[in-house]
Protein: HAD family phosphatase
Amino acid sequence: MYNLKNKISAVLFDMDGVLIDSNAVIEGAWREAAEMYGKTISEEDIVRHIHGQPGPHTIQALFSDLSLNDRKKVQAHIIRVENTAAYEPIAGVTELITSLDAAGVCIGIVTSGWREKIDRVTAMLHIQHCISVIVERDDVTRGKPFPDPYLLAAERLALTPERALVFEDSRSGVTSAVSAGTFCVGIGRAELIACGARFAIPDFTSAEVNSRPGSDVEVSFGSGRVVAVSATA
Structure:
């Protein structure tokens, strides 16, 4: 079990790549937008400026030479594609969230996405009733990789960031979570450990929630990796 200075009191999830397998849709939407204006998007662009980043950052980084009207068209294209695409949940995430909720654990979503998409995803996963706090891109001036989104989530939950367990799948997301002071677990890629993730898992199929009345909730991820979480109820 991880020996944490401050007991974990909340579990926070990024959305894209953590709740839903949406990375291919997102990459495709931005590549389509680029092609409309004779541009190409590199793999480094995807890592640095797309995954884990709010749309306005991506547009400023990759489409700053376009007119304001054309930048608005790019944004509208991205929103239209992402709001209508079909997504599959990341394996095991729905089961983990419902188990944490049943055990009385506080759960939140911290994402660079927007409210319409968040509401659609939580409805699709049937987890609306499980979520205590949501921080979206319009809630902060500085999004990921800055710590502001996770600092705001902690503030809204009235706890210190060190008491939050976070799941992130991008470099910018992990950097945001770690710089805020949270205990961050990487999803999908082992290289996220280099960004500060405490460990990385491919998905949530190995996650198990064990709770007993009067004791902490233990969340295990295989290979002896166990995190104790305080229940709120």
Summary: Residues 220 and 226 are 4 Å apart (CA to CA). The mean pLDDT is 93. Strands lie at 10-13, 106-110, 133-135, 164-168, 183-187, 199-201, 208-210, 217-220, 226-229. DSSP finds eight helices and nine strands in the chain.
